[in-house]
């Protein structure tokens, strides 16, 4: 049996018998701190919009978590085969990936409306449930999780592109009104489809606005409207001043003589006097 007391004696014996120049008994020493640590995470996954729909949307979240090593032996046993090197950076990256993986698995049990409208309650259930046990199985105590931000990129993009529908959509999600949120999404997608694919757009509009599917009642026969009486087209009236200007222009352009100008001018003035 090898102990710290007999290692020196065994080393000298191996040196004499086997000719070793150094001790064959070597070990890597790893110091495990038991203080509290803080880690950061960020994730992107797809979840259902609500419990009664199959509509999927993207969900992004980021935040912090606090932990400490509760069982160093179990921790080293579990992590030794998971990282190439046992140092601070490698362990930190491993734990971040482990946190994100488990968070995504847990968030898949909730809908976007659940997370958006009841974030504190959802995080509390995740922290004290399977996620806590997953860390404990690796010798780690998960102390706390704080989600600093959460977003629904696809739906928020809709809000920026069309605030008329986007803002009511996010308000409906925050209130947990699944029916209203789904109605707005269907309407917006139908309107988009109308501009791209007429057949698909009309179908989408019928789905979003079921009132369009109601049968149209025939309208009662109406008497034909009276036909308007034809009127004589009115000739555009030309003032005496316009006629005289046109006549003077003909004279200036050399199209008529001075005598013709005087005769026509006299005739125009006589017609004006008779009126």
Structure description:
By secondary structure, this protein is of the alpha+beta class. It has 4 domains: 26 residues, no CATH class; 115 residues, Tetrahydropterin Synthase, Chain A; 55 residues, no CATH class; 25 residues, no CATH class. Helix content is 52%, strand content 14%. The chain has a 3-stranded antiparallel β-sheet. Strand 1 and strand 2 form a beta hairpin. The N and C termini lie far apart (141 Å). About 9% of the residues have low confidence.
Which secondary structure elements does this structure contain, and how are they paired or packed?
Blueprint: H1 7-17, E1 37-48, E2 56-69, H2 72-79, H3 88-107, H4 112-117, H5 119-128, H6 130-136, E3 140-151, H7 153-161, H8 163-175, H9 178-196, H10 198-208, H11 240-252, H12 258-274
Antiparallel strand pairs: 1-2, 2-3
Helix pairs in contact: 7-8, 8-9, 9-10, 11-12
Which overall shape is indicated by the principal axes computed on the Cα atoms? elongated
Note the gap between the termini. Answer: 141 Å
The CATH superfamily of the largest domain turns out to be Band 7 domain
Order of helices and strands: HEEHHHHHEHHHHHH
Known CATH architecture of the largest domain: 2-Layer Sandwich
Biggest sheet details:
3 strands, antiparallel
So how many helices? 12
CATH class division of the largest domain: Alpha Beta
Which key terms come to mind for this protein?
275 residues, Tetrahydropterin Synthase, Chain A, 52% helix, elongated, 4 domains, 3-stranded antiparallel beta sheet
